[in-house]
Design a protein that fits this description.
Number of helices: 7
Shape: globular
Structural class: alpha/beta
CATH superfamily of one domain: Class I glutamine amidotransferase (GATase) domain
Largest sheet: 9 strands, mixed
Strand order of the largest sheet: 4-1-5-6-13-12-11-8-9
CATH topology of one domain: Rossmann fold
Radius of gyration: 17 Å
CATH class of one domain: Alpha Beta
CATH architecture of one domain: 3-Layer(aba) Sandwich
Helix content: 25-40%
Distance between the termini: 18 Å
Length: 252
């Protein structure tokens, strides 16, 4: 039996039943890695003491940085903490930020989704805004308040214009797609080597690549994992991510 590539999927700290602390990753992320990318998903806990950075790089053939309710702590990009930045997950920050930078450096494939695109940007020296809808001319990118129906929460809400001839336009074969939108925080200052690849109708950064990356190194602000099996753009992204992981595994 041929060994499938292993993808490290970033976990987040949650309270099960509001009481018991767990490390978890969304089912859709794990299913997209297994069914669409064709790889084996392994949850990476947001616990820096659980494993050395080199151990994760040795174990995994690629990394999926997932979304999460907690925001990247503002001290990671030179800002001062306040209530407007929301909840934090310092353990996850301590794992994913150095891991993203290290994986890109060694050429391991990295795919960032929602919080994940923000982690790539911060890991490469960029900055974020805690509530993008507060900026002049920006729309509300958050999910409908109080909504519990996933079909409504993840409904496609706005267009994303892709850079002509860029990495996303080449991969997806088009220059405009329609995506879901479930975020408050967003990139305002691209990091070193971060290339803006897609913008929402109001100019919010929705897609990035990493200049000079040795392998797949892309981030999207929307939740590409939600309907990865059927949505053409999401499927193409996860398939390309899986192909990159297989190439990386063979090269190792």
């Amino acid at each position: 039996m041929t060994r499938r590539p292993v993808i490290g999927v970033s976990g987040s700290r949650l309270l099960a039943e509001g009481v018991y602390p767990v490390q978890a990753a969304g089912m859709r992320n794990l299913e997209a890695v297994a069914a669409v990318a064709g790889c084996v998903p392994v949850i990476i806990p947001g616990i820096p003491e659980a494993a050395d950075l080199r151990e994760w790089l040795a174990l995994c053939d690629g990394f999926l940085l997932t979304g999460g309710r907690a925001n990247v702590h503002p001290s990671r990009y030179g800002e001062i903490e306040s209530e407007r930045y929301g909840a934090f997950d310092l353990g996850r920050d301590g794992v994913t930020l150095p891991l993203a930078a290290a994986a890109i450096e060694v050429g391991a494939p990295v795919f960032g989704i929602c919080r994940g695109i923000q982690e790539i940007n911060v890991a490469l020296g960029g900055g974020l805004h805690p509530e993008v809808r507060e900026l002049p001319g920006k729309m509300n990118h958050r999910m409908p308040p109080g909504e519990t129906d996933p079909e409504i929460i993840f409904r496609k809400r706005h267009k994303v214009r892709l850079t002509p001839g860029g990495a996303f336009a080449r991969l997806l074969g088009c220059e405009e797609i329609v995506t879901n939108s479930l975020h408050g925080q967003a990139i305002t200052r691209p990091g070193t080597r971060v290339v803006v690849e897609g913008l929402a109708e109001d100019g919010v950064i929705e897609a990035i690549s990493v200049s000079g990356a040795k392998s797949f190194a892309l981030g999207v602000q929307w939740h590409a994992e939600y309907d990865a099996e059927h949505d053409p753009a999401s499927r193409a992204l996860f398939e390309a991510f899986g192909d990159a992981a297989r190439a990386y595994a063979r090269a190792r």
